[in-house]
Amino acid sequence: MSEVSDAERLRLREPPPASPVMRQVWRQLAFLHWRVERAAVAALLPPGLEVDCFDGAAYVGVVPFTIPLTRKPRLALPLAPAFHEINARTYVHRAGRDPGVWFFSLDATSRLAVAGARIGYRLPYFAAEIALEEADGWIDYRSRRRRGPAEFRARYQPVGPVAPAAPGSLEFFLAERYLLYARWGRRLRTARVHHAPYPLQAAAAEDVTQTLTEAAGLPPGACAGPPPLAHYAAGVDVRIFGPSLSTP
CB-based contacts of 106: which residues, under 8 Å, 6+ apart? Predict the structure, then answer.
């Protein structure tokens, strides 16, 4: 069971009243998760955020995917060319409300996306070299940060039927997140996203090696080897909303 109610999670799944500032398409997502010690995650969070746990356990995820489309809503002109992205993350809340994502890092091949997200959202984006190849139903994903020893490699593919995550399940806790947090000086900045529930499938993941979580400050070996939990989503159409300063 999660520390935050499903009603609170479902509240955030509804789109906010503001107009989105951007539309993106996310494709070929893998959700790779490790169960980690709560204290190891809590040590990396800013004041005001608490670790969101499921059955008393904290989780760290690495999510590789590709973004073939980024544009202004209702406009045909793209804001950025197609690019690949991978993020390392954990899950947080504020006193039992506003469950969201805390990103340790986001690596992307688009320098424009890296610069824009760092300036506009204060997110820890980094430029990276990323390759995505498909063969025999497998996706081979390789990422290397251009500066610093942060790398990722894995092969993954869906192996189960498509089914949106059910409220109350671990899959719902991990995947259904529509609020992100970022540090803004001594305050927090938040932003919302909106999309249909992920078309989740169980996944197989092989040859997983990564140093993203260690580069973020997690203990060496905390997320070593194949992830115990792996899911896949073919894609979603996403509306992204502007950032705002979080109230204390």
Answer: 85, 86, 87, 88, 117, 123, 124, 125, 126
Residue reference for tokens 């980690």: 36
3-state secondary structure the chain: CECCCHHHHHHHHCCCCCCCCEEEEEEEEEEEEEEECHHHHHCCCCCCCEECCECCEEEEEEEEEEEEEEECCCCCCECCCCEEEEEEEEEEEECCEEEEEEEEEEEECCHHHHHHHHHHHCCCEEEEEEEEEEECCEEEEEEEECCCCCEEEEEEEECCCCCCCCCCCHHHHHHCCCEEEEEECCEEEEEEEECCCCCEEEEEEEEEEECHHHHCCCCCCCCCCCCCEEEEEEEEEEEECCCEECCC
What digits encode the pLDDT tens for the residues 18-77?
A: 999 999 999 999 999 999 999 999 999 999 999 999 999 999 999 999 999 888 877 666
The model's pTM: 0.95
State the Rg of the chain over Cα. Answer: 17
Under a CB-based contact definition with an 8 Å cutoff, are residues 191 and 122 in contact?
Answer: no
Rounded Cα gap, residues 196 and 223, in angstroms: 29
Beta carbons of 28 and 235 less than 8 angstroms apart? yes
The pair of three-digit structure tokens given for residue 180, joined into one six-digit string: 């992100």
For 174, counting Cβ atoms within 10 Å of its Cβ (0-12 exposed, 13-18 middle, 19+ buried), the class is: buried
